[in-house]
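Pipeline run #58 for the internal structure catalog. This entry was flagged by the ingest filter as a single-chain record with no existing model, so it goes straight to prediction. Upstream metadata was stripped on purpose; only the residue string is passed forward. Reviewer on rotation: M.T. Logging verbosity set to normal.
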Amino acid sequence: MLVRWDRLSPGGARARLQTYYDRTDRGGFTFRETRTTVDADFNMRLAPIGRHQLAWGVGGRVSPSTITQTVPTLNFLPNDRTGTLLSGFVQDDVSLVPKRLLVSGGVKLEHNNYTGLEILPSARLLWTPGRRHSVWTAITRAVRTPSRFERDLSFQVLIDPVTPVYLGISGNPEFDSETVLGAEAGYRHLVAPNLYLDVAVFINRYGRLAGLGAPVTSFEASPVSHVLAAFPFENSVEAATRGFEIAPDWQPLPAWQLKGSYSYLHLTADNLPGFANTALRDNYRGQSPSHQVRIASHVDLPRRVQLNQTYRFVSALSSQSVPSYHTLDARVAWRASERIELSLTGQNLLQPHHPEFNAVGAEIRRSAYVAVTWT
């Protein structure tokens, strides 16, 4: 259940208060989790003060959860844990040269129940030398805080039934936040009255990514007496990405719009000093596609009919054993009246099924559905 309140003052200030309540009961063959989440956020953008446009906000979240073990080799300890998150931010957009040069700077502070205080600064610059050109650049720090998976997991697999010996992965109560420092820049050009071109480049540095430490051997008495060699989660991997994206936007006819994009990604990952386990390091290296292409067409036909088509190509994921694939989505819609729209959508039309990620061996199937929308 979500409630949102917005207010726009005559002077131009805008305030928003949003809160939601969520209750989840997840069942499966591995474990069961019940979770309750209560979240509230308040954001405010003040009226312009000279060349400054200030915004600020605060938020809070409380999320207690309970894990119920369903198989003897998988558990989360402790079974009960409450997640908390408090946050606040402030941002200032400064018009150094009106309609030409805009600088934005801000910082967000987050306090969570795993790692305490996290500081997340960001800075952006937008330069518009003319009506047909704009250049922007940005630098940002972000984190991914730990979850119950890295902190509380206890997972075991039998590898020698005679001894017996189990291999396992265990949570680490000292697992820290993963970090990224990202820098990006872009250029937008109005090539012709009906053609835009966007070009962006980026470099990201990742630190303290999740990996596995040296195994810890112990003797366990439950569910039966056995030897356990458990690999703990550690912040053991660093990585870097760099790449670019080209995105044209062309309207060859008043009723026809074409949008495209091509992106290239190069990723490297290495263990931090002192860590030798390469399993997750190698997984990082091959779990993101190097090349992606997207072409979207939108056509307004006579008699209030719309035709949308989207083609996608994604290159292979080597560590996931997922080959490259290309596919097509299509949608035709008829607005029968000002209030009623009928539509037919087909997804992944170029093949009966294809894999996109090999986490559970599932594949994406060709599908179609009909929708009626009444406004």
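catalog note: Helices lie at 148-152, 279-285.
catalog note: The chain is about 5% helix and 70% strand.
status: ready for reviewer M.T.
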